Amino acid sequence: MLTKLVNYSPLPEPEGFTGGLDEVEQKGIERYNWFKNDGSAYAIAQATRPSTLGLVLSSNPIALLAW
Amino acid sequence: MAFKGFGDLPGTAEASTITNFHIDIPDEDIRRLKQLLNLTHVANANYENSRPVGGRNLGLRRDWLIEAKHTWENDFDWRRHEAHMNSFPNFKAVIKDDLGDFSIHFVALFSKKEDAVPLFFFHGWPGNFAEFLHILELLGSRYTPDTLPYHVIVPSLPGYTFSSPPPEDHDFGLTDVARLMDKLAKCLGFGGRYVVQGGDVGSRVARIMAATYDGCKAIHCKQSTGLCLVLE
Question: B117-122 and B90-97: which strand pairing?
Fold first, then answer.
């Protein structure tokens, strides 16, 4: 029997904390925000209306290629 | 490249549920595809699809799509690609499950070494098993069936290429995919000890297998985004 406990809780930055992020971390955040704001609409559409998209994309090969 | 000997099922496999598979798309389907391509009109030029200097910040470019359509209609030879895929050992396994019987397609190079490690590669979206064919080519050129350190198995996830689609009456998800892939490992006789690798959607399948099944001993993921849109 495999038993594992995983606890995950996002923590806000503590008050008065000035450590900040290093350059690599900052770039990672920027890239994540770019993906979230400008690169991920396709995934949201697929996750929320898979039926509509499935019907559209299976109707025509050029439509599927474009998507 | 000929993969002589790499396609011999290991003695541990349930040979009665696994068959060799040969890709052979009917001529009629290829004709229909070409007709659809030929009849399809690409949208007229507009501001959004014709940004200057190659810009695609508003989405796919019209000139790219016209060129791709032209290439697809005139230069693309499915039979050539099909022959390449068929040069690898292809199989189908019937996996019995509470959700029904699934026919799972996979490409594999099997080793004859006693201590060979079973290694599963899970493709992403929009992708398929062909993502890994160049790795199989490399391994096939560097090793023989007697020296290959791994059994390398590349399944088509349910709904992709030649594997059964998800059932119509069940909200099929990644835990279902992971269960079927663990059953595939068991069907090959590898259920007690195997390794998984996955990218994109495949990374999620791999993660669930690592967390759920004792037989999954090691995992390697790539392209596993923090954007959790696929319910696990």
Answer: unpaired
- Contact between B227 and A62 using a beta-carbon 8 Å cutoff: no
Write the CA distances from B47 to A41, B59, B63, B64, integer angstroms: 20, 11, 13, 15
Q: Which tens digit of pLDDT belongs to each residue from A14-39? A: 777 767 788 998 999 999 999 999 99
Residues in chain A: 67
Q: Over the stretch B125-179, which tens digit does the pLDDT of each residue have? A: 889 999 999 999 999 999 999 999 999 999 999 999 999 999 999 999 999 999 9
Residue in B closest to A46 by C-alpha:
B229
Q: How far is B224 from chain A (nearest CA, A)?
A: 12
CB contact under 8 A, A36 and B211: no
Burial (CB count <10 Å: 0-12, 13-18, 19+), residue B83: exposed
Residue ranges of B 177-216 with Cβ closer than 8 A to chain A: 211-214
